[in-house]
């Protein structure tokens, strides 16, 4: 994913990035637990590290659904630092009914 993002931002100079996730992500929920799941733990390691580094703040959120929101990469941060115009748009897909919520958030540089 990061190589595609970097190509789009650095080479193609895209102006809009859509991040589409889904509610009740089992991978993120698993990463927030202290259990081991096997080989998938290697994939979850980065999420676990982010959660551990921010656990105090995450625990102030009212429910698990809000704790599973994620954003930021150095690719986008560096593009903004260069003055490149990029907007991030967050979409969320609900698996239970197929509803896609558009523009849940939009992030632009300050």
Please describe the topology of this protein.
Layout lengths: L1 H10 L4 E7 L3 H6 L8 H14 L1 H4 L5 H4 L6 H8 L5 E7 L6 E8 L3
Parallel strand pairs: 1-2
Antiparallel strand pairs: 2-3
Key terms for this structure?
single chain; 110 residues; alpha+beta; Beta-carbonic Anhydrase, Chain A; 2 domains; 3-stranded mixed beta sheet; 6 helices; Carbonic anhydrase; Carbonic_anhydrase_sf
Walkthrough of the structure:
42% of the residues lie in helices and 20% in strands. The protein is α+β, with helices and mostly antiparallel strands and 110 residues long. About 5% of the residues have low confidence. The chain is built from six helices and three strands. It is globular and about 40 Å long. Strands 1-2-3 form a three-stranded mixed β-sheet, with no helix packed on it. The chain folds into two domains: 65 residues, 3-Layer(aba) Sandwich (Beta-carbonic Anhydrase, Chain A); 43 residues, no CATH class. A hairpin with a 6-residue loop joins strand 2 and strand 3.
Intertermini distance: 25 Å
Extended strand count: 3
Order of helices and strands: HEHHHHHEE
Describe the sheet with the most strands.
Answer: 3 strands, mixed
Helix content: 40-55%
CATH topology of the largest domain: Beta-carbonic Anhydrase, Chain A
What is the level-2 CATH architecture name of the largest domain? 3-Layer(aba) Sandwich
Total domain units: 2
CATH class of the largest domain: Alpha Beta
Strand arrangement in the largest pleated sheet: 1-2-3
Unreliably modeled segments: 65-69
CATH superfamily of the largest domain: Carbonic anhydrase
